[in-house]
Structure prediction request, 223 residues.
Amino acid sequence: MSDPIPVLTIDGPSGSGKGTISRLVAQRLGWHYLDSGALYRAVGVAAGWADLDLDDAGALVRCTFDTDIGFRESAEGDLRVLVNGHDATDELRTETAGAAASAIAAIPEVRAALKDRQRAFRRAPGLVADGRDMGTVIFPDAPFKVFLTASAAERADRRYKQLKDKGVSVTMDGLLREILARDARDASRTVAPLRPAEGAVHIDTTGLGIDAVVERVLAVVAP
Ligand code: DC
Prediction:
């Protein structure tokens, strides 16, 4: 029997640098990349377009099944996300979409409905899977697992700089409160709570530059 296609799972809280690091590591390895948060965000955006109530679990589950989510690379090489055929990449990154995604992600039927879509990303020569439950639930048999963290203050600071660059006005205090609230919600939900997978290599990115983190993650795959 041939070896299973390798997967490197990179889990951790928002702002730990997962997205940037995972994309760079996938590029370096020449592997595919799964941004699992984008799937939850896409359903959040679709729910917003349909004006659904975030407390109506039944409607959100139906919306998950009905939403077509596609990924494609633009001419400039960045990843675009299509929701029901519309390019929703920028809308996906808003705080509103993030908050909707976090609420939606707590519904077990939604998580179950997205399972196979995530596993379909496992294609040769390999996959870097970025999320919260990649190593625990979606790819428990992955040979390489990383758990990225950073202090809440550093995560709020990174987010603050990103938003300021985009011209969005926010306060550090407000951001820190939001980050702590989302951490608590993601870690305390009964289904697939955020926690390190057994055997995951923990990397604290506080005070580390992107290149240093990329090298540490690559060392997990090829020590
Ligand atoms: O990583 P992100 O910020 O794009 O994720 C958006 C939300 O989706 C976040 O609140 C947690 C949730 N999520 C999840 O529950 N499981 C995943 N594998 C990825 C994201």
